[in-house]
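Figure 2 data, in text form.
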Amino acid sequence: MDINYSKDTLQKRYQYILESIENKKAKLGITREIKVVAVSKTHPVEAIINAIEIGILDIGENYVQEMKSKFEQINSLCKSQPLWHFIGHLQTNKVKYIAPFVHLIHSLDSLNLATEVEKQARKYNRVLDVLIQVNTSGELSKFGCKPEETLQLISNVSQFPHIRILGLMTIGSFSTDEVIIRREFQTLRKLLEEAQRAFPKLHLKELSMGMTNDYLIAIEEGATILRIGTAIFGERHYT
């Protein structure tokens, strides 16, 4: 297993990702900004600190306890914090743990969860930025609202004064079939276009889709945020 978290190794991997994105943008004539969120799930604080020091500003985590612990450790070790993105399934009883510091919640998928996010955001006098997670694959193992329920959820959540919806998120199928993956990303893009027409005042613009194995397809289909873990930090280490 590759467990090399040196700044030199992380720099080379991160630079490769950035260059591949710029090459794809140039080839397609894309001018929009594409943000890379480095997903540090299961990787140690040491890796995140080195990532910060080489210029990575956006860090993504899947689990609330892990994210909160890493936030607290980095807060005691570093002068500056990264921007924390929560990208995993978020349970209502755990919103309170990340509400004080989370930069963007990628996985808001129900009115019930939105109600709790609003409650905690109000408690901390914050307006929390969120993305609506959509299950574009139809897989029962995936979280997210159904595509046909997306506009109604946006309408409902947009009424909360302490939540700001920035766009949509999806997780592509774990498939080697590019046709399947592309179709799911296209579904999300078309949903965003529908939402932009339906809610012109919300300034919806973000599409969070694409990971290590499919981020180049995601760029072609309109992604503005890529969630890259393995290609930056190496294989995950589960205990």
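Caption note: The radius of gyration is 17 Å.
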